[in-house]
Write a structure and sequence with these properties.
Layout (H helix, E strand, L loop, with lengths): L2 H27 L1 H26 L5 H36 L2 H19 L7 H7 L1 H4 L5 H32 L3 H7 L7 H39 L5 H10 L6 H17 L5 H36 L3 H37 L4 H6 L4
């Protein structure tokens, strides 16, 4: 190897490294756009069966079917906003009229009742404990206008994101081959058919998965709403939606949703007797919540994960666990879709390997 060849190799390697760095920098700068495209792709995967139904069964023109689906999506978003805004306004009004001394007294009464019920000797003063925290000691009133500016700035960014997602979703739903043509750009000449098979299989499996996930959240939302309404918890619909939506995070989501629900039960009954009112209601709500989770674990999830992505429950558990350890909560959320796509690609490209045959036998 002469010096000229060596220098050329070094320059080529440096060029590749520089290209990778520029690509990563570009991805970092446009990460919000990538998120918009990802959300729009999920909406397209969920909405595609509805578009097909409207076109084939109800004879809708393609464009009208797409617009109908997007109007439904927008109606859901507006409905959720309309659900939460009155609650925020009401709570803001309540906060402005709250009697601080009465609230402190309720907290201290709850503290005494819990301590007596549990048989604790040392008194724990909740109010003093809050006052001793570093957040309360270092609280700066200048943070309030900064927080309001952040909120209004966030509203502007939310409207931009909503418009962008709906705009991208429209074209993804309108032209079912748009995503496919984008993928085919990366295929070599003569490999187009293989790419098409892989893409179609991934699209079908992920569409089933996201439709099933939406159905799972809806079923939990209905069960939680019935439960919270039965025990007269304030704002049951909003709380039920938040707790149901948390279930998109496997395993951890239901845990946090249960804790959140217990906190809302306490806040809705603050000032009542702990041993005769708060504790029994917490136990009843916890029992109802456990039944809802059993329904979800033994009926909903097997139908969604087993039949939609065609993977064994133990296989899914290990993938979610590994993804959570490596990439935290985001990894747990995207673990199943990404793993499903990898399995389909592996079956097409590495089908001669025994482990690949074993993992993809049901695909």
């Amino acid at each position: 190897m002469n010096s000229k060849t060596l220098a050329t190799g070094i320059l080529k390697a440096l060029g590749i490294i520089a290209g990778i760095i520029l690509l990563l920098y570009f991805i970092w700068e446009v990460q919000s756009v990538i998120v918009y495209i990802a959300i729009a792709a999920v909406i397209a995967l969920i909405g595609r069966p509805v578009v097909i139904f409207l076109k084939e069964k109800l004879k809708f023109p393609n464009q009208l079917a797409v617009i109908t689906v997007l109007v439904l999506v927008l109606a859901v978003v507006v409905g959720l906003i309309g659900l939460f805004i009155p609650i925020v306004v009401e709570q803001s009004k309540n906060l402005s009229q709250i009697d601080i001394e009465a609230f402190k007294n309720d907290l201290n009464i709850l503290n005494v009742q819990v301590r007596e019920y549990l048989g604790l000797q040392e008194q724990i003063n909740i109010v003093e404990g809050l006052q001793r925290t570093s957040f309360i000691k270092n609280f700066d009133l200048k943070l309030i206008p900064n927080f309001l500016n952040m909120v209004f700035g966030g509203l502007g960014a939310t409207f931009i994101a909503l418009f962008s997602v709906l705009f991208i979703s429209f074209f993804l739903l309108k032209d079912s081959k748009l995503m496919l043509n984008s993928v085919l750009v990366f295929s070599n000449v003569g490999e187009e058919e293989r790419f098409k098979r892989v893409f179609h299989k991934i699209k079908v499996l992920l569409s089933r998965y996201f439709v099933g996930l939406t159905l799972q959240i809806f079923v939990l939302f209905v069960l939680y709403t019935i439960l919270l309404t039965a025990f007269k918890v304030d704002n049951p619909i909003a709380i039920a939606f938040i707790c149901a939506f948390l279930n998109i995070v496997p395993y951890l989501g239901p845990l946090f949703a249960g804790i959140l629900m217990m906190l809302f039960v306490i806040s809705s009954n603050l000032g009542a007797e702990f041993s005769t009112v708060i504790l029994p209601r917490m136990l009843y709500v916890l029992a109802g919540y456990s039944i809802a989770q059993l329904i979800d674990n033994f009926i909903n999830q097997p139908l969604i994960f087993g039949k939609s992505v065609k993977s064994h429950p133990l296989e899914i558990f290990l993938i979610i666990l590994i993804s959570g350890l490596m990439f935290n909560v985001i990894g747990m959320i995207v673990a199943i879709p990404v793993y499903t796509a990898i399995k389909v690609i592996a079956k097409e490209a590495f089908s001669e390997y025994k482990i690949v045959k074993k993992l993809t036998k049901d695909l």
